[in-house]
Design brief:
homodimer; 335 residues; alpha/beta; 35% helix; 23% strand
């Protein structure tokens, strides 16, 4: 119990994910998991004048839905830990503004949902807080024009490229109540395999995902079969294949247990999303929309959520820096 | 003890700031506090080909100095919590890469040193970790060209504008050993006074600083005179004046006790820095370089560090969003 192995914490009093809420955009709603999401937006602008204002409004609304669902007021939430992909996490900063909740801003690229749930569970398990919100968000249009090309440009996308999810997910983590429990966390370190192709983030993140998963299993004395599913954030099809190969090379067979939110989100052939989905909102919306409900309905009993992030900026890519990865694992179960 | 009042935690077993290390650029070294900083760079590029690579190298070197000083290896550090002002906190991501330390990436604008020390102290006080690093960084040249204008442009700066510090500071927080103790923390909420002038960040941050300081005093049952100094991050001269006025209007006289790292860093008249210094590296380097030593030498015995952040991006400013502020307070004392 407590800190175990190299980089894990096992909780003696596992915090509870008491409530969860997800919002996705129209393209995500049209994908294979469409029925599971709580709110399906018809308008990616949410009635705002810019996509950035739209993303902030999406976050604001998702938090309000979660407060309504939990019958809590903003002042009942002791902390919120959250982030997004916009420069200076503006979507989150602006989306949270009206709530007045003490706020720790995070940047973990697309690993942010893992990071936010990890720190929230530390706050609750320590006894320093009893009700904490965690979340993450991304938006296709804000990410595309910030990281890649103007939306109007319509550039051709390589087949290794992924499609940033418009969506977000937030959870309320408490010390009492009903819901899946966070048994342990494994905090990722930065792993750099010298990938420089900004159109192949899956390759950049796969080594970090494998590093965190294998470290988690060793630290906590578990094997892959202790889990019903090990779920990476947004490796996409290319990254998922690499992760399985890499784990196998390292002597751990994850082939039948490893699934990826980036692969689950879209029907890539029909929806023209190439290697799959990406973005902070990918694992955030699929965890809160799909996996959380699978746990509540006892369709699965124990999962390892491993949101994965590619650490790069437009400037770092232009300056020839490699894209390192990071992944944070959160072990969640129901009885 | 534990969570008290609206947004504070008082630690029963106060974590210890066992080691600290600061690095600053040449302009900061030439300021009134020059003698206190541990490393004074002669070259803001640190031998690199770009300022961004220079900022990453500054972070890498400062962490190495801190490891040397503490006689620790990277694997002795269980977590690092850190951030900077570059888009996607690239300076930190790249600067940390070689160490392999489990990493929580933070974005709190210039409040990041307060955020990182707060979360690090939670990790240690909870017993989940016993040795955690926290830090923050900024760089004049990377910030100026990212947030404002190309360096070569040489635009005229308004008198309310501040000068981003080239500098960083890191600390090692432990559960045993010698050093100042973190007695309590107060986590800020986002405070928005509808300031839209990107050349007057002090005005945008002052209301958040006052909100956090007054909440801290109420939550912990203290008065300003319980502190030898209450130290904001980078309000600068304009923001400091506003903060004092605002606190007075709210019935708390902070005039004699409130000082600001943004005012302390430069000799504004001689160094042409207008309203003072700013940037994550401002409070990070002045805490680790100056205040930490004042505590160790018993020149002060109890301080409230309140790093302050202005939550904006180029995009949010261009879209007419107001600049909200946030401030995180960390109460530190020696016996």
């Amino acid at each position: 119990m407590g800190h175990v192995g190299k980089q894990s914490i096992v909780f003696e009093n596992p915090p509870i994910i008491a409530w969860a809420h997800s919002t996705v955009g129209p393209k995500e709603a049209a994908g294979p998991l469409g029925q599971y999401f709580d709110v399906k937006l018809e308008d990616e602008l949410l009635g705002q004048t810019t996509w950035e204002k739209g993303e902030s409004e999406m976050i604001r609304q998702n938090i309000q839905h979660l407060l309504n669902r939990s019958q809590k007021a903003p002042q009942d939430i002791q902390y919120i830990l959250a982030g997004d992909l916009e420069n200076q996490i503006s979507a989150t900063n602006i989306g949270l503004k009206s709530y007045g909740i003490p706020f720790f801003g995070l940047y973990g690229a697309c690993s942010t949902m893992g990071e936010s749930m990890s720190l929230a569970s530390i706050l609750v398990a320590s006894g320093f807080a009893n009700c904490v919100m965690a979340g993450a968000s991304s938006h296709y249009c804000t990410a595309e024009r910030q990281f890649r090309t103007p939306m109007e440009y319509g550039g051709q996308r390589p087949l290794t490229q992924q499609w940033t999810v418009t969506g977000c997910g937030h959870v309320i983590i408490t010390n009492k109540g009903n819901g899946p429990r966070i048994n342990s966390i494994t905090t990722g370190k930065i792993v750099d395999f010298d990938i420089k192709d900004v159109a192949n983030m899956g390759a950049a993140m796969a080594p970090a995902a494998v590093d965190t998963i294998l470290t988690h299993l060793t630290d906590t004395g578990q094997s892959p079969s202790d889990y019903d599913a090990i779920i990476t954030g947004d490796l996409g099809q290319c990254g998922l294949d690499i992760a399985k190969d890499l784990a196998k090379q390292l002597g751990v067979d994850l082939a039948s247990i490893l699934v990826d939110c980036g692969v689950m989100m879209f029907n890539d052939e029909e929806q023209d999303t190439h290697a799959g989905a990406s973005g902070c909102g990918c694992s955030a919306s699929i965890f809160t929309g799909y996996w959380y409900k699978q746990l509540m309905n006892r369709k699965v009993r124990k999962i390892l959520m491993v949101p994965t992030g590619a650490l790069m900026s437009v400037c770092s890519a232009q300056q020839g820096e490699s894209i390192a990865g990071i992944a944070h694992a959160v072990s969640i179960s129901v009885e």
